[in-house]
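Revision sheet: structure tokens.
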Amino acid sequence: MRAREKSANTLRIYSGALRKLCAACGWNHLGEVKPEAFCEWRKDCGLRAKTVNDYMSVWSRFFRWLKRQRLAVENPFEFIEPVDGRASEREYRRALTAEEAARLLATAPHPRRVVYHMILDTGLRRQEVGGLRWADLCLGGAQRSDGSAQATALSKREGSPPLGAGEGAWGQQSTVRIPASIAKNRKTSVREISPELAAELRALMPPDAAPFQLIFPHMVPEVETLKRDLARAGIPFVDELGRRADMHALRKTFGTALVLNGEQPRVVMETMRLSDMKLAMKLYMDAGQLPVGAALRRLPWNSVEVNSNETRSLNAALVGAREAI
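Predicted:
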């Protein structure tokens, strides 16, 4: 997986799944890995169906690799059926409403407010935000509070690459570049950011900022810090349905807002840098915010006015027909 340049977070997840199941089932050698032991463990582990299925998927992929390397004869997980958790699984994460997102930005302390604003404006993941550097920004050449041209000054620093390369230019729309080195899909992309966010980033940038200096060093909040910021804004961390409003919920808020704004599914998928449209429409869309009631009220038979006299005549004719039969 390292040779395929998988991200450090992906490596951590896979390694953790392998080690945790080894410890839980008491496996020390490959010959001890048995499907019966796994099935017995998952019956009483108390984990969500998706988590259990993810563990099984990791181990199955591991044994497929072992078979290709001629290190194993068979895959013990090949014929184990995944757990069907559709009846018991609940939605784990929710999106903030537009009003809640505005309150969070209005009440969150600086500089965490800028972190939240960055995710809500771009849909970046936690690790991606934490890995951004000043060289990844193109702030449109706007003036800093001290009157100097920030974009020009930063672009002239020694060793600085073209900021926002590939899309946009100084003096035009502000952009952020997500380098392949920190992107989950391992592809470099460029996204526009709002003038309000660009202004906050200009104010945050130190006068002596180096191009490869991190924008948000130690600023991306942990769960407990986020809980305090949400409480300050009057937003519950867990709602009445048991859904969390964690950091990744801000990315879901971004995706939900795109859908509610009427963007095409393909546009939503590309904007969120996803490989599957189903992820955009299911995982990153809070269906509870869809205007379902308004759609039902717009059904044609609910909006057609029927003449009362015609209705009474039709009902009388139906009664007469039934009596004749």
